[in-house]
Each structure stands twice: as structure tokens, then as C-alpha cells.
Amino acid sequence: MKDKLIIFDTTLRDGEQSPGASMTRDEKVRIARALERMKVDVIEAGFPAASQGDFEAVQAVADAIKDSTVCGLARALDKDIDRAGEALKGARSSRIHTFIATSPIHMQKKLNMTPDQVIEYAVRAVKRARQYTDNVEFSPEDAGRSEEDFLCRILEAVIDAGARTLNIPDTVGYSMPQQFGATIANLIQRIPNSDKAIFSVHCHNDLGLAVANSLSAVMNGARQVECTINGLGERAGNASLEEVVMAVRTRQDFFNCDTGLDAREIVTCSKLVSSITGFPVQPNKAIVGANAFAHESGIHQDGVLKNRETYEIMRAEDVGWTTNRMVLGKHSGRNAFKTRMAELGVDFAGEAELNDAFFRFKQLADKKHEIFDEDLQALISEQGFEAEDEHIKLVALKVCSETGEVPNATVTIRVGGKEMTGCAQGGGAVDASLKAIESLVKTGATLALYSVNNITNGTDAQGEVTVRLENAGRIVNGSGADTDIVIASAKAYINAVNKLQSPDQRQHPQKGDV
Ligand SMILES: CC(=O)SCCNC(=O)CCNC(=O)[C@H](O)C(C)(C)COP(=O)(O)OP(=O)(O)OC[C@H]1O[C@@H](n2cnc3c(N)ncnc32)[C@H](O)[C@@H]1OP(=O)(O)O
Ligand SMILES: CC(C)C(=O)C(=O)O
């Protein structure tokens, strides 16, 4: 039987200490509810002595939450502890978390106290907190830079005073995983009454080691981890909840414990915290980043299509994504391309048709970061336009457009087997290009409509252009798509001309026309 690993979420307290991440009372309640749905064991809702607003926020969370324990932070001062006790009055299950620094630099330079005075404050604070709740947590702040002997002394004293959770913070993210794990093991082994308390850790990410240090502590006997959604927190942040939870779950072979969390709520919670705080989640962030379960390169996509476990150690669905994601881009291969096309209802008649479409896809992918379904549909319909009548084809287009100059375009087309080049000036790059084409094909048609739609978002999106040509009572529409709307316009014009000059009406350019 494995031990329970308690998850103590401090997004609403330490997470809120990220500059710019402060939350209103109602926002804290919304996040607390999401944490409760995820079955987080303890929610640290704030620091009630910090302000009237934070007092009320902790109070509101305490009143709203039924299943998780709600905790408030307090310095080792009567006034802070009383504020926390009062704010937590309505909680079904409450905890007071009190702390005082134990490292030489903090004691001397910040608190201006002797080690004995610090122990005195700590013991007094724990005893006072016990007047409000049996559930008292004590943290020797900056434990990562504190002397182990002194930690043993103070922790033994606060256990006797009634602390039931001993949280060892690496306040400035200075520890190394092996060393931090050894400290936890030593404390548990050296403190005579350590069996009366649960050991916890609270790691900061200044060296990017918060999760590694937390996991090392768990391997050495810690049974509570303090963490935050998306790794939010003071300076470089705290250990990220989603990474800790999924590391323990995925590598059960390393741990004698597991959390009781419903990990399928992770992504929802991450998105909520990100939208409330305005802190975006980086795309390559483990578990909750947009790319965490996305595959772009052909070899990976091929492997995943054959068996997901080739490149996935967790299932996207298990942390709350709808599914994993195949991103089509310049590194993708035929297998992924064909699979996505089949999902879009496009079946290729044979290898040649697939290869042709795949070639166009690669050309587009060289110009565009990500290929969306709409791009693929445009790619296929464009193939359809051309397949319909490819008598005239765009070979090259060069446009010169600068302030103070009349735009001009040089276009080369292939008509039948023959290449022709023409130039024209126009009111803009599109106008000049269409006039250059017209100077070659000489339809004499009127442009009855010209419209541009962007198929996807972003400045690298494909534009789809539609033109309507009218000639001698005949009306045809032409379409073209490209990441460059001038090229899309030229393609659309040529597509319309091809339709206009259907075989019976086609006028082949005459020698000397060019
Ligand atoms: C590592 C951590 O994350 S700890 C939590 C950090 N979070 C916060 O600080 C957020 C909330 N803080 C605040 O709103 C304010 O700092 C308050 C309300 C707590 C205190 O404000 P002020 O009374 O104006 O004090 P100020 O912030 O300037 O200085 C902190 C004081 O607390 C003392 N102190 C710091 N930690 C502790 C402690 N754990 N126990 C007792 N006293 C402490 C300092 O020595 C200093 O005392 P001094 O003024 O006698 O020198
Ligand atoms: C109050 C304690 C746990 C803290 O936030 C820290 O040391 O980083």
C-alpha cells in the first residue's frame, strides 16, 4: 500500500506574489473551486494580515470550499496569526501556516534576532495558532541555506508546541536535488519526535530545479509538496503542480506514494489561472503547454500514428486535453499528411495524386509556420481549380511597390507549352499584376468582383482571393490561395481566365504578342 502524497497548492498565496499576478477575491474563489474539483488537499488562499482585501479573499475561499483544507499564511507574530485564525473561521477544514526564517543571513540581517529568539518566536506562534486549529504548519524560511543542526533544534521544538506539518522551504531556489533530498532524510532521521509530523517541501525555481528538488525530497520521505499551477510564484516561481503530480504518477517505479488528484482537471485549471493572472503558458511548458502533446516532425508523427507510446509517456486525455495533436508543418511526412486529409474527407486516387498534393503542402509549409485544416482544404480546392483547366499557368511574378513610385509587376505565364512574360503598372501591387496578366491573355474581360479572405489567422495566414470576370455575357469566377495575397490574386485571375477560355473559346496567343 502506497503512502498518500499531500498536494498543497499555493497558487493563491505564493503564486500571487508573482509581480503582476494579484487576484481579486472573486478570482481567488474561482481558482479555489477549480483546485477543489481537482481534489487538491490543501489550498493556501492568501496572507490574511497582508491587507483587508486578502483577509476577505481568504475568508471567501474558506466559506466556499468544502472538500479541501483552506490555509492562511502568517508571520510568527500574534497579530498575523489572529488575522489568519479569524479569516479561516468559516472553513470546514482549516490550517494556519506560520513561518520564521532560520538561515544565518535572514536571522542576522533581516530579523535582527538571535537563533534562540527565533526558536522562541516559532514556538509561541505555533502555540497561538493551535488556539484556532489543530492543523498547524510551520516553515523555517530559507531552510535551504540554514544549518542542519539548527533546523533539527527548531523543528523538534515546534513539534512539541503542536505543529503537525513541517515544511522545509528552499526559499531562494539554491538547493541541488541530491543535497536537498539528503537534508530531508537527515531531518526525519535526526529529529527524535519527527514521527508526529508530516514533512513537506516548498521549492523555488531560481535555478530551474524546483520540481527536481521537490521530487528528490519525496523520494527521501517528504509526504507533502507545496506547488502552484503553471509554476507561478515569487521570482522564477514555485514547483509546478502539474509537473510534480504527473512525474509521481508516471514514474511510480520511483515513488512509494501517490496523490489523490484528478489530473484530468489540470488543463482547465491551468487555463483558468493563466487567463485570470494574464500570465501566458509557454507553448513548450511540460503537461500544460500547447505543444506538450503535439507532434510536428514526420518521423514522430509516423511513430505516433502506429503506436502513441513511441513518443508519448503520458496520455493527453489524462491531464485534460481532448487529445494529442498532429501539427502539420514543414517537418511532417506523407503518413501524417494523408491521415489528416482522410480525416477531412479527402482520399487520393493514387500515389501520384498524393505525391502532387504532398509536394504543394511542403511548398506551403516552407512559407507558413503551421498548416491548419483550412489551409489543407484550400490546397486541395486550388488543386481542383488547376486540374479543371491548366492551360494557362502562373510561372513567376515580380512586383515592385514603393512609396512615391507607381507599382509595377512583371509576370511570366505558361500557355500550353510556351512561356510568356509581360509587364504593367497599376494603382497597387494587385492591380499591376492583374494588368500584366491581362496584357498577355488579352481576354478583354471586365473585373466584376475582387475579394480577399484570410483562411487562417496571423500575418502568415493564407489569403484566398476570388475574382469574377465578365466577357460578352459570360461570367466566371476564379479562386486562388497563397500566403502572399498578390500571388493569390494572380492565381485567381488566371484560374478565371482558364474558365473563360474554355476549349471552344480559347484564343491562343499569337506569335509576336509577347
Ligand atoms: C518567503 C515568503 O514568501 S514569505 C511571505 C511573503 N509575503 C509577503 O510578504 C506578502 C505580504 N506582506 C505584506 O503585506 C507586508 O510585508 C506585511 C503586512 C506582512 C508587513 O508589512 P510591514 O509591517 O509594513 O513590514 P515590512 O514588510 O516592511 O517588513 C517586514 C517586517 O516583518 C518582519 N518579519 C519578516 N518575517 C517575519 C516572520 N516570519 N515573523 C516575524 N516577523 C517577521 C521583518 O523583520 C520586518 O520587521 P521590521 O519592520 O521590524 O524590520
Ligand atoms: C512561507 C514560506 C513557505 C515561503 O513561501 C518560502 O520560504 O518561499
Automatic annotation (TrEMBL):
Reported cofactor(s): Mn(2+)
Molecular function as annotated in GO: 2-isopropylmalate synthase activity
Keyword Transferase: yes
Subunit structure: Homodimer.
SMART domains hit by this protein: LeuA_dimer
Protein name: 2-isopropylmalate synthase
All copies of domain Pyruvate carboxyltransferase, residue ranges: 5-267
Lineage: Bacteria, Pseudomonadati, Pseudomonadota, Gammaproteobacteria, Methylococcales
Family statement drawn from the similarity comment of this UniProt entry: Belongs to the alpha-IPM synthase/homocitrate synthase family. LeuA type 1 subfamily.
Enzyme Commission number(s): 2.3.3.13
Protein function: Catalyzes the condensation of the acetyl group of acetyl-CoA with 3-methyl-2-oxobutanoate (2-ketoisovalerate) to form 3-carboxy-3-hydroxy-4-methylpentanoate (2-isopropylmalate).
Reactions performed catalytically: 3-methyl-2-oxobutanoate + acetyl-CoA + H2O = (2S)-2-isopropylmalate + CoA + H(+)
